Amino acid sequence: MLGSRLTSANRETAAVISGLSIYLLTDKNKEAAAVTPVQKETRWEVAKSDPLSGVDTLKIRSVQHINTQQFAADNPGASPNDPDKNKTYNYRTYQSKLDPGWQFKGLNKDGTLRLFKEFELNVNHRASHTGLVETIGKVSDGFRKQADGKIKEIPEGVRKALEEGGYKTVLAPSVIEGLPNLKGQSHPGWTQDFSHIDGTVIAEEKLIVLGETRIDDNESKVKARANQPGHQFGHAFDALGEELQGKYFSATKEFLDIYEQDIKNMSPEDKNNKKDKDGDLTIVGYLTQSDGRGARETFASIFGMLTTGPENPGDDKEIVRLFPRTVDYMKTRILPKYNK
Ligand SMILES: [Zn+2]
User: Fold this and answer.
1) Which residues have CB under 8 Å from 31's CB, separation 6+?
2) Mean pLDDT of 7-21
3) Which of 71, 154, 241, 313 is the most exposed, having the fewest neighbouring CB atoms within 10 Å of its CB?
């Protein structure tokens, strides 16, 4: 269960590490802390600037906290009590992928482990890499304008939290041209590979990737869906919740209680309608996946719907019909805190 990786005791340690502990003592202060990102350990920095080649290299040192049970489950045979600093380990990502190559950094007081991994990203040269948006390769002015416009529709408090949290949004001709190592891989819950996707989030690398084009079901190249940024910003914001409040927004008890109530209240027809005739997940199937994935997709889908608009025409009606309480909760309890 990725979403519940951190127990409440573990979260406290994570908070101590990030300097948040003092804010977590009371509920009142919890709210104040929720709008002030303080964990700056993982963020993109410029490693090399090269105006001649036109390509700059950014790097990030990603640090993640993991409890011993999850570490043991992801690393059969390795002892969570005595990891080897010269070896590398697997880490289960926000997207539920088992990612190899993580090094052990140290133990927290409560026994949770800190793992780290370094990543690099080659982006188009700029004199200064301030702000959220970077570009890889050649994208059209029309796409840049469209993406910029949609990003402006994201609540300012969310954009600020992501920027201060070290996030980057990458515009690229396609997702796999932006991140070539995604080529041939597929996204959990999808049968198609990343060439068919117009946006994704790599939470551990604090990256939101938006492609100008994707390959459709008929294998032809088509333009990205205009409202894609809202859904992806929803995922990034959800994952940043771990730094802002010790847990993904979609993994808090408050969110899950309401989300699960909506699932319980669905009609038998809806509950049994999880796959279409081709065997792909329907909207119900996608949003009710197990192990926290359905909750993460529901959070991102509702966030996108309420900010930039539904990813696909008609999604909004279905989402409101299936998850009325969750929509209301995000509209009245989550977004207002960041809508400034
Ligand atoms: Zn998603």
Assistant:
1) 337
2) 34
3) 313
